[in-house]
Amino acid sequence: ETLDKGLEKSSTSFLSKLTKAVAGKSKVDDTVLDDLEEILVSSDVGVGTTLKIIDRIEKRVSEDKYLGTEELNKILREEIAGLLSETNSGEESEFTIPKNKKPYVIMVVGVNGVGKTTTIGKLANQFKKAGYSVVLGAADTFRAAAIDQLQIWADRVGVPIVKQQMGSDPASVAFDTLQSAVAQNADVVIIDTAGRLHNKVGLMNELTKVKRVMQKVVEDAPHDVMLVLDGSTGQNAFEQAKQFTAATEVTSLAVTKLDGTAKGGVVIGISDEFKIPVKYIGVGEGIEDLQVFNKYEFVDSFFK
Ligand code: GDP
C-alpha cells in the first residue's frame, strides 16, 4: 500500500512513461522499442537487464510478426516477473527465520546513509513482534553516530544491544554480541558492520575478519549477509552492489527508500544482475515501513 503510494507519487512513473511512448500507436515497432529501452534505463533497471528485456520482446515481435501496443504492458509484466523469479521466490510475506538455526545471525553491510541502521531497527521490531528474541550488535565502530543511532533503535524497539567504544575492533564487537546472544538463548542476532567503502582489499579484510571471529562462537555464522541499498540512488546502488559482492558473499538485499521515488527499477536490475534475492524493502522512515519483498506485489506497483 505504502509502496504503491510511493511509486505512484511521481508523474514520471514507469507506466506513465510507457503510456506516453505508445500513445497513438497500435503496434510495437522499432521506435517503441527504442523508447522502451530508454524508459527502462531511466527507471534504473540497468543497461544489462534492459537489453535482456528488449531482446526478449524483439523476439516475440518477430515470432508473432505483430505485437499490439495493448499487449506490450502484459508482456513486459511477464518478462519482469520472470526475471525476478530467477532469484526471488516471492512467496514469503511474513518476517520469519529458519527454525534450525539458533541464534540466526544476520550480518548487515552497506555504506553510510543508505538506511542501514533504520532497516536494522525496523527488522528487529518485526522479528520481536513475530515472537523472536533479538540481540543487536553495533560493529560499525567507525562513527560514534552509528553506535548512538543503533542504541536509539534498540531502546525504541526494546531489544538488547552489544556495543563498545567508537574505534574498537568490529570483530571484537561481533564476537561479544554472539556470545551474549548464545548466553541469552536469543533467536536472532543482527550485526551492523562496515559502513564505509574504503579500498576493496580493506573492506574485504574487515568483513572476512568479522565473519571468522563470529564463527568462533557460532560455527556457521553468518547465516545471511544482507546488503542494504538505497533504491533512490540508481547507478550508485549498482556500484555499491558491485563493490560489496566483490568483497564478501552477499546473500540477500534490502532496498530502502522505495517510497517517494519512481525508480523502483533498481530492484529489477540489481536482483537480475547480481542474482541475489531482495528480501526486504523500505517504504518510509517509520518503524513499520519495512516489507518482506513480494515480487508479485512489486510488479503490480511498478505498473500502477
Ligand atoms: P545509515 O547511515 O545507512 O545507517 O542510514 P540511516 O538508517 O541513518 O538512514 C538515513 C536516512 O534515511 C534517515 O533519515 C532515515 O530515516 C532515512 N530512511 C531509511 N530508510 C528509509 C526508507 O525506506 N524510506 C525513506 N523515505 N527514508 C528512509
From TrEMBL:
<feature type="binding site">
    <location>
        <begin position="110"/>
        <end position="117"/>
    </location>
    <ligand>
        <name>GTP</name>
    </ligand>
</feature>
<dbReference type="InterPro" id="IPR003593">
    <property type="entry name" value="AAA+_ATPase"/>
</dbReference>
<comment type="similarity">
    <text>Belongs to the GTP-binding SRP family. FtsY subfamily.</text>
</comment>
<dbReference type="GO" id="GO:0003924">
    <property type="term" value="F:GTPase activity"/>
</dbReference>
<comment type="function">
    <text>Involved in targeting and insertion of nascent membrane proteins into the cytoplasmic membrane. Acts as a receptor for the complex formed by the signal recognition particle (SRP) and the ribosome-nascent chain (RNC).</text>
</comment>
<dbReference type="Pfam" id="PF00448">
    <property type="entry name" value="SRP54"/>
</dbReference>
<dbReference type="GO" id="GO:0005737">
    <property type="term" value="C:cytoplasm"/>
</dbReference>
<dbReference type="GO" id="GO:0005525">
    <property type="term" value="F:GTP binding"/>
</dbReference>
<comment type="subunit">
    <text>Part of the signal recognition particle protein translocation system, which is composed of SRP and FtsY.</text>
</comment>
<keyword id="KW-0472">Membrane</keyword>
<dbReference type="InterPro" id="IPR036225">
    <property type="entry name" value="SRP/SRP_N"/>
</dbReference>
<dbReference type="InterPro" id="IPR027417">
    <property type="entry name" value="P-loop_NTPase"/>
</dbReference>
<dbReference type="InterPro" id="IPR004390">
    <property type="entry name" value="SR_rcpt_FtsY"/>
</dbReference>
<protein>
    <recommendedName>
        <fullName>Signal recognition particle receptor FtsY</fullName>
        <ecNumber>3.6.5.4</ecNumber>
    </recommendedName>
</protein>
<dbReference type="GO" id="GO:0005047">
    <property type="term" value="F:signal recognition particle binding"/>
</dbReference>
<keyword id="KW-0675">Receptor</keyword>
<dbReference type="GO" id="GO:0005886">
    <property type="term" value="C:plasma membrane"/>
</dbReference>
<keyword id="KW-0963">Cytoplasm</keyword>
<dbReference type="InterPro" id="IPR042101">
    <property type="entry name" value="SRP54_N_sf"/>
</dbReference>
<keyword id="KW-0342">GTP-binding</keyword>
<dbReference type="InterPro" id="IPR013822">
    <property type="entry name" value="Signal_recog_particl_SRP54_hlx"/>
</dbReference>
<feature type="binding site">
    <location>
        <begin position="256"/>
        <end position="259"/>
    </location>
    <ligand>
        <name>GTP</name>
    </ligand>
</feature>
<keyword id="KW-0378">Hydrolase</keyword>
<dbReference type="InterPro" id="IPR000897">
    <property type="entry name" value="SRP54_GTPase_dom"/>
</dbReference>
<dbReference type="Pfam" id="PF02881">
    <property type="entry name" value="SRP54_N"/>
</dbReference>
<feature type="binding site">
    <location>
        <begin position="192"/>
        <end position="196"/>
    </location>
    <ligand>
        <name>GTP</name>
    </ligand>
</feature>
<dbReference type="GO" id="GO:0006614">
    <property type="term" value="P:SRP-dependent cotranslational protein targeting to membrane"/>
</dbReference>
<feature type="domain" description="SRP54-type proteins GTP-binding">
    <location>
        <begin position="277"/>
        <end position="290"/>
    </location>
</feature>
<keyword id="KW-1003">Cell membrane</keyword>
<keyword id="KW-0547">Nucleotide-binding</keyword>
